[in-house]
Amino acid sequence: MADKHILVTGGFGFLGSHLVERLLADEDARVHVVDNLSTSPIDHEAFVRRVNNPRLTYDILSVEEYGKRGAFAPFQEIFHLASVVGPVGVLHHAGKITKSITDDTYCVLDITQKTGARLLDVSTSEVYGGGRDGYCSENDNKIITPKVSVRLEYAVAKLACEIALMNTCKVSELHAVIIRPFNIAGPRQSGKGGFVLPRFIKQCLAGEPLTVYGDGSMIRAFTHVIDVADGIILALRKGRRGEAYNIGNPTNKISILELAKRTVKLSESSSRIDLVDPKALFGPLFEEANDKYPDADRSTNELGWKPRFDLDTVIRDSVEYIRAGRVD
Predict the structure, then answer these.
(1) Which tens digit of pLDDT belongs to each residue from 178-237?
(2) Rounded distance, CA 107 to CA 90, Å?
(3) What is the architecture, at CATH level 2, of domain 4-186+224-251+290-308?
(4) Counting runs of H as helices and runs of E as strands, what totals does the chain give?
(5) What is the residue extent of each domain of the chain?
(6) Is 257 helix (H, G, I), strand (E, B) or coil?
(7) What is the dihedral sign for C-alpha 124, 127, 132, 133?
(8) Side-chain half-sphere of 143: how many Cα atoms within 13 Å?
(9) Could you tell me if 131 and 137 are in contact, meaning their C-beta atoms sit under 8 angstroms apart?
């Protein structure tokens, strides 16, 4: 059987590292990672040693730098994950996010067209702008909220890239599929970008108060990172070209305040819960996302994707990873 050459941008990120492991489970897969480590929460060298697979190669550089090489392996599949990320992480890139996301996407598109590969682009659930009282279906309007924020720049940049890829599919042979993930969580996620579950867990394990923003009523649907990685692979290999798919677990729908209470319980912590103003912590640029949880029927029906991990498992797996102090 001929080798399958696969490119993963952002492959040393939280989601990317899990995706790389899933891809390498296929014995014919040769995976090449491109990552500048700007948002990577892991020690990539420790990760590579642990994986210990000669079919994994990598370049530590930006997508733009990699694209300038001009000559590439005969990739059959390209997974584009590289991006600024996180409700706090994006704040440092205000005014630059649009250029960063669109430049990288067009660079990956160029590599895809030169190699004839299939492309999977990871977008964001924030393109829905909150959907219908938080419920987000692929058939819903994409909403640009009236208040301009850094998060809005991130969402609009991702949406613009979606549209560009979909239109390119209409006028060329490009096979591109988009996924919109919903609140990925699990082992290897860092709290540095502003992600809530690892922050709660670290506070619990340290015996510190859990800091819940606002009144904690915000609704999310947390999805295990392994479920998302599996959904990404299915979307590229089974998804319709030029289409977008929600990847999120609607049964894990919960408010942030209830998530805090459950994290305290499952980590066996005595921490109290404090309600705080996030703008006092991060400044006036911080904005909380609208309520959001997915309609996952399209992914279930067309891709055969079914999330396997309930919310308690997402929390327990995250607690175990953080408690062990692992970085790979």
Answers:
(1) 999 999 999 999 888 789 999 999 999 999 999 999 999 999 999 999 999 999 999 999
(2) 21
(3) 3-Layer(aba) Sandwich (3.40)
(4) 11, 15
(5) 4-186+224-251+290-308
(6) helix
(7) positive
(8) 21
(9) yes
